[in-house]
Amino acid sequence: MVQGAGHFNNLTYPTYRLVGILRKVNELRIHVHKWTKHTRLKHTQAVIDEIASEVLKANFGTTDYFSFLAVGMLSFITLFTSLQSGMSIVWDRRLGVLSKLLTTPVPRGNIVMAKVLNSMIRSLVQASIVLVIAILLGMKLNPSLNPLDVVGAYAALALMSMGFASLFVTLALRSTSWESQMAIMNLLNMPLMFASNSFYPVKSMPWWLKPIAYINPLTYVNDINRQLLLGVAGHNLLLDFTYLLIFAIVFSALGITLSWRFLSES
Amino acid sequence: MESAIKAINLTKRYGNFTAVDHINFEVYYGEIFGFLGPNGAGKTTTIKMLTTVTRPSEGTAVVNGYDVIKQPAKVRESIGVVPQEYTADEDLTGWENLMLIAALYGIPKSEARERAVELLDMVELSYAADRKVETYSGGMRRRLEIAMGFINRPAILFLDEPTLGLDAQTRAAIWEYVYRLRRQFGTTIFMTTHYLEEADQYAERIAIIDHGKILAIGTPKELKEKVGGDVITIEVNGDVNVARKVIEGIDGVSGVTVVGNTIRFKVRNGNTAAPVILESLNKLSIRATSITIKEPTMDEVFLEYTGRRLRDEESSGEEFMRFRRTISRARR
Fold first, then answer.
1. Is the ipTM of this complex over 0.90?
2. Which of A74, A113, B177, B272 has the fewest CB atoms inside 10 Å of its own CB, making it the most exposed?
3. Sequence-ordered alpha helix ranges (H) in chain A
């Protein structure tokens, strides 16, 4: 044994011991497997699968988790893109373009809604790309899908996008720092996504998460989209749309009225 | 509606800092009026208040007959603005930028096309109209922005430091275009600058502004006259003291100083006073070996009114970034 490599010697001995133990465990496993071969139920796997799919269906409403998740991803990408609406105003302000714009007869509210519309269009394009990729990866749509369903799904995404874009444009009305925009964006996007039914149904959530999910617009968008695109059962479509409509109108109105007073060059 | 612009106790405060302090001035229709002052004097803030971008803290202004606080929409319809920063969209061509700004003013497409062709022709940018603005040089961008400023045939055009960062040749060319357009449309021009020569040469009336206060208003000539007139330096071959007494005795002379054989003094109108002085000296057999007549520069005018020379004021980090961006784009 070389004196200088003392600490290496201290590790090699236990490692050899560990490998030896693992080998013994593996041997045991093979033996048990052989002994229980004739007593193992043939269809164990199938039974477990069936129990799992019943649980999945009861909670998620479908056994196809990939499609369930894919619809969640549509609202996720829409959210992410809509939250970036404020950056446009911050940069316009920095470059002096906003100042020039404010000297033209364009109404202040129009400037706000133009940015919101911009954000909405970008969000919907992103969502379309995600949808196409999801279908290519194996997302299964409702076989009795009609164009009205697709229009309805896009309408839901558009309303949510309008609401969030208006909110963030309002936050940026007087802001000169894009860093703070990014900070607020990142503060909200992950929690909003996880406190919704994008990944798992609301009824599986703990009691303290449910209220947040119920006011979260993403929950409603996902509910609508899963019903329209996947044919999964859900809550009343009309109520869902009404909630989203109110969300969009309230924040747009807020953005427009605040812009009259507060949209300024600095 | 006698004056194009009338500022009444116009004030702007940012917290404790008063950027513009109760200024009063009038601009008449058809003239080129200039604000001359260092950076941070309140020039850009004043323009922002006159163009309804920011609300005054106190006081008001009447632009083209409309109050900036009570009727901002009407003010915006009658003005054009060429800001200090380059605000043309770089991803669009020159033509598209003109169409965009025409749409913002609600000008119908067909009329907008006619006006755009005319304006591009007047600023000599027709050859580059279909190139993206990011390929333009600083002078070209400025020309485009001036064309954009005239798209709605405004009654008043605001130029905020129009030749900032441009070389002397380009500066002269830019002003050539401004004059041409003004002749065509009869627009009143309100400009701000910190270039003394620019104010001297191109503005018809100037207001000197420093630390938010207006120190003097008048034509460049009037302001120079108030400084005391031209400076004459005479070198004499003879009795200096006698010569000095002669000069001091002449009407309109002030501030006589003697250094060796050289007498330096101020007089109202140097061109006409010099022959008179030389004649008086000749009568006493005092010969002048050299004579220099110098008109006061705007630098001296500024020194007279503000007590210091025009130099760069401290500014905030944000303002400095904008300034640098403007200069770097101008230098392309």
1. no
2. B272
3. 6-35, 44-60, 65-83, 85-95, 97-102, 108-137, 147-171, 178-194, 210-215, 217-225, 237-262
